[in-house]
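Entry:
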Amino acid sequence: MLRDFILPITLAGAPRGLIARDLPAGLFFYGFPDIVPFADCWERDTSAGQRETAQQMERWLDHLLVAAVCEPRLTLEQVHRLGPARDEAVVAYLRTVGWLTERDVLVGERTMPIELAPAPSVEDDPPPIAAWVLRAVVQTPGQNVRQALRMMAERTRTLPSVLWQLPISEWIFCWRVLLSDKLQEREARRHRDD
C-alpha cells in the first residue's frame, strides 16, 4: 500500500498540492462505467453513446477525487471549481497508483477527440453521505470490472472480496503482473480472427 502522496496542481498560476490516499479497489471502482472511452466496444458505439460514456467517465473521475483526496477534503462542488487543476490531479492520481502508464499519458494527450459536455451542476448530485464508502465495497461492479476481478481471483485462488479490499495500487500491480500476458494473447487472437 502506498503512503499518502501529493498530487501537484496549479491553481491561480501558483503550484499547489493535494494529499491523496491509495483507495481500496472497491472504492476506486465505485461508479466506474462498464464501457470506457477508446475501448473497442466504445469505438463501435454511436456518437451519442460515446458522449454518454465519456460523461459517465468524467463523473466517475470527479467522485474519485472526492474519495481519494484527504487533505484538504474536497466536495464535488470544489472538484468542479478546480478547472484545469482537476485534470492535473486526476492524471497525477491515476499515474501514481499505476492505472496510467507513461505511454497512456502521452497517447491520451494526442488522442482526445471527444468534446465533453460541461460537468453536471452540483444540484444534480445527491448530498454526500458516509454510507457510500461502505456501499462501494459491497456493491457488485460492472461487467468488465467484475470479469477482471473474477480472473484475478481464479489466478490467485483468493476470494474476490479480499481482492476488492486491496489498495488500488496493489490491485493494478497484480493485474498487470498476473494477467497482462493473457489479455495480450486474447487481443492478438481477436485481431487474427478479424
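The chain is about 55% helix and 10% strand.
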